[in-house]
Amino acid sequence: MPPTLSVRPAPELTGAERLVVVHPADTPASAPLLAAVTRVGGPDLAAALSDPEVAVPAPHLILRPPATPADYRAAGATAGRSADPTVSCLLSSVTASLVGAFARGAALGAQRMATPDPAEVTLWVSGAAREAAARAGFASGATTLAARNLANTPSNVKSPEWLAAQAQAVAGGRLRVQTHDTGWLEARGFGGVLAVGRGSARPPNVTELRYRGTGPHIVLVGKGITFDSGGLSLKPPTGMPLMKTDMSGAAAVIAAMGALRDRGVRASVTGLIACAENMPSGSAMRPGDVLRQVGGRTTEVLNTDAEGRLVLADCLAYATTTLGADLVIDVATLTGAATVGLGRQHAALYATDDRLARTLERAGRDTGELLWRMPLVPEYASAIDSSIADAANSATDDSVQAGSITAALFLQPFVHGVPWAHLDIAGTGRTESDRPDCRKGATGFGAALLTDWIAAR
Predict the structure, then answer these.
(1) What is the tens place of the pLDDT at every residue in 6-45?
(2) Residue 172 lies in a domain
């Protein structure tokens, strides 16, 4: 269950079993603050607030983060994780923007996976601007948690049909959702999606989420591979358990579209999620197959475990040739090379438009979902040359390396010159150990970034 939030005026602070006092490290505690803390937490807590050398009495906490959004998000995560199942946080002498960062962190830290009982977080702040920032920050965290929950769902439950149903569940207001079945895909040439899904007993689909607004038409494309065994190019057993999260891109798009609906943004946005399961069987696609994709471009399959780019390519071409997209952003756990190059803290960003790249990077910094721009090197395209198709889905020239870049170069022709950004979240979309702001598993990366980026337009 997602955590719940209450925002209360700080002057009305009342007793709490667990009080977290958040106060800037370089600001002395005022007399009114010390009086309030004494009233609620007792004189020992007030003494610890006055003097950092004094021990903080359990179960209370005092957090003195430096005045940066990242530090306040981390402090919020610490506070959220301390909820058992409730926690009250008093934010004193903190700006509205830092209150928002703290609230986002508190929502992320309050994620509870082993119990159906939700954490309850109360934030005590002063002033309307801080109250609004607290609610907005917590909502941002809830958007991320929605994406996490989708990606953490086990794949015996999470079929392509199930994922489409989760997209259908966010419909309402100006948001309409339609799922396209295999017959529709065949009629429109979605050769990549159909080939990837062919090996599974559970058929693929493409689900379209349309938010009717004004202005340029933005299309978000999410990779929705509900389980990736690698197909006939089978993954090693140790590489499979986290493959339930290989639809993290689609999860980010679904969560972002739901958040845009709730915020009533002005923009016109369509989300496309390519839902398929990549499995080995007698009907699975084979290395050596040649696929015809949306728009007629052909792909030689050399590695069935490079399936994500096949489903993305169809959706990118559909977005630009049929939907009339003015701008396209795709999100995908696409390449291990992105993880090798950038680790778990930065996603790889490729963009054909400098302003688009700058604004996405800014949204990443604001939400803590960090991006690192990578180059689209034209000379590297020779690495995926094919003698029998327009391109291969895996390297034909191992001397080039740069697997994340060549994957982006594979996708680029499918956008037909429309401004485009590609987010390779293979490293950031999942974590293999617990962090203060995330339990082991899916991170929900990209959902808040996309929401804030669109809302700011």
Answers:
(1) 999 998 998 788 899 999 988 999 999 999 999 999 999 9
(2) yes
Which position among 73, 112, 309, 430 bears the catalytic label?
Answer: 309
In this structure, is residue 306 part of a structural domain?
yes
Q: CB count, 10 Å around CB of 43?
A: 12
**Structural domains of the chain, count:** 2
pLDDT given at position 238: 92
Assess contact for 90 and 6: CB atoms under 8 A: no
Same domain, 305 and 352: yes
Residues of the chain with pLDDT under 50: none
Using CA atoms in the order 91, 452, 250, 80, what is the torsion angle rounded to 10 degrees? 0
User: How far is Cα of residue 228 from the mean position of the Cα atoms in its chain?
Assistant: 19
Per-residue pLDDT of 428-449, as tens digits, reads 999 999 998 999 999 999 999 9
- 88: its two tokens: 């009250």
Distance of alpha carbon 180 from alpha carbon 204, whole angstroms: 9
**Rounded Cα–Cα distance for residues 396 and 405 (Å):** 14
Does residue 137 form part of some domain?
A: no
Express each pLDDT in 123-155 by its tens digit: 999 999 999 999 999 999 999 999 999 999 999
Among residues 135, 235, 373, 457, which one is catalytic? 235
Any catalytic annotation for residue 309?
A: yes
Q: What is the pTM of this model?
A: 0.96
Q: Is 210 a catalytic residue?
A: no
Name the residue among 327, 335, 333, 298 with its Cα closest to residue 313.
298
76 is in which domain, residue-wise? 4-127
What pLDDT does 15 receive? Answer: 78
Q: Which of 127, 161, 190 is the last residue of a domain?
A: 127
